[in-house]
Design brief:
The structure is a single chain. The protein is of the alpha/beta class and 296 residues long. The protein has one domain. The chain is 54% helix and 7% strand. A 4-stranded mixed β-sheet has the order 1-2-4-3. Strand 3 and strand 4 form a beta hairpin. The radius of gyration is 20 Å and the shape is globular. 35% of the residues are buried. The structure holds zinc ion. The site of zinc ion (ZN) has 4 residues, from helix 2 and helix 3.
């Protein structure tokens, strides 16, 4: 539904019944679901670690499957990362799910608003989009995934109506692009698994307690292994690959197409933790901006 569509006249209790039957959200579409704007630094770090891995997995698929890319590869990797994460949650589109999606978009808003030294700035000539553009791109895909239910998303993110009007088309393009990749390169379930993505953990060399705590959290969640296994099983990979958690000296992540190695730096996880401290301020501002969501 576009933002211009009139509000549904269906009584709220019927919407709730329908929601229970379909397993979809049961809140008014112009209000955030309860708890979607709640700040949680652990969830913020985990959601952004997952998105970072899936963004790099996007680069991996582009390189290993020789995918055609129109436009900037970094934008394609963001889109592949978003849609892979989005679909991995199936129909569990509850408040916590949308809180995670907002965590991922808000990471780029925090980067955009953060004063940075020159060497950390993203310039117009760089291969990556500007932090603000990546924020709005993700906000648009979130909203475009279900505009009927998510009228509150443009309000809490500040996504202007000029962009929001076409976000359902942007989401559909990304969803169809992934469906094409799956048709062209998907591994049928009965086909033997020839190549896998192996996960390797370097011992973290951050300050010992932080590093060890991070490592324990990551290993306990099993999320890294799950992402590697899903990609190994979903696609016909042409060779065995590695996903390494490493000490890099910078909050970075990358895919090296020569060595076939995806690297996620412990420093990037620590950077997410540092930025998570700003999340309550951001969410409070979002709440205030949405106090008028349902008012004319
Ligand atoms: Zn990238």
């Amino acid at each position: 539904m576009s933002l211009l569509r009139l509000p549904l006249a269906t009584p709220r209790f019927c919407l709730l019944c329908l929601s229970l039957v379909l397993g979809t959200a049961a809140w008014a579409s112009d209000q955030p679901p309860p708890a979607a704007l709640r700040s949680d630094s652990g969830r913020f770090v985990a959601a952004n670690a997952e998105f970072t891995l899936l963004h790099e997995m996007g680069h991996l698929l582009i390189a290993e499957l020789d995918l055609p890319v129109l436009g900037r590869e970094e934008d394609a990797a963001d889109q592949l990362g978003f849609i892979s994460l989005f679909l991995s949650y199936g129909r569990q589109r509850d408040a916590d799910f949308y809180a995670k999606l907002l965590d991922i978009a808000d990471y780029w808003r925090l980067e955009w608003q953060r004063p940075k030294p020159d060497y950390e700035e993203v310039y117009a000539w760089a291969s990556h989009g500007l932090d603000a553009q990546r924020f709005y791109n993700l906000a648009c895909l979130i909203y475009g995934s279900d505009p009927d239910q998510l009228e509150w998303v443009p309000k809490v993110t500040g996504l202007p109506v000029e962009r929001a009007l076409y976000c359902d088309q942007e989401y559909t393009q990304v969803r169809e692009a992934l469906a094409w990749v799956e048709r062209q390169h998907g591994r049928p379930p009965h086909e033997p698994l020839r190549h896998r993505i192996q996960v390797i953990y370097e011992p973290p060399s951050l300050r010992v307690e932080d590093g060890q705590r991070l490592l324990e959290q990551i290993r306990r969640s099993g999320e890294v292994e799950a992402i590697a296994a899903r990609a190994s099983q979903a696609y016909r990979l042409p060779r065995s690959l590695t996903l390494r958690l490493a000490n890099c000296g910078a909050p970075d992540a990358w895919y090296n197409r020569n060595s076939g190695e995806l690297v996620l730096c412990y420093e990037r996880l620590a950077h997410f933790q540092m930025l998570a401290e700003q999340l309550p301020r951001l969410r409070q501002a979002a709440s205030q901006s949405c106090e008028t969501c349902s008012k004319p």
